[in-house]
Amino acid sequence: MIKVNILNLKGFLETVNRCRGHVMILSQSSKKINITRQYPLQHELEDQYRRNGKHLPLSLVFDDPRDFMAVVSYYAGDC
Questions:
Q1: Three-class SS string for the chain?
Q2: Is 60 helix (H, G, I), strand (E, B) or coil?
Q3: Pairing of strands 32-34, 23-26
Q4: Which stretches of the chain drop beneath a pLDDT of 70?
Q5: Is the separation of the CB atoms in 66 and 20 below 8 Å?
Q6: Which of 21, 26, 53, 76 falls 20 to 30 Å from 2 in CA-CA distance?
């Protein structure tokens, strides 16, 4: 699990949608919710992002270590 603060949601979601396995957010109730290519959920994240002043704190869990590395690489390069 990693905790991130997303500042560029569009780029983040593009990276997530290229992942092979599930990229899941960890909800406040510790429920894992897959967001990979789940466009209705991604629209909800966009709404939260706008309400938060264009930043979105998330806790992420990954099925595939390659997806973890892809998201971490994106996140490190975007900051």
A1: CEEEEECCHHHHHHHHHCCCCCEEEECCCCCEEECCCCHHHHHHHHHHHHHCCCCEEEEEEECCHHHHHHHHHHHHHHC
A2: strand
A3: antiparallel
A4: 78-79
A5: yes
A6: 53
Beta bridge partners of residue 34, listed in sequence order: 24
- HSE of 2, CA atoms in CB hemisphere, 13 A: 16
Q: Please state, in angstroms and rounded to a whole number, the distance separating the CA atoms of residues 59 and 32.
A: 10
Distance, in Å, from the CA atom of 24 to the CA atom of 34, rounded to the nearest integer, reads: 4
Number of neighbours of residue 9 by Cβ within 10 angstroms: 17
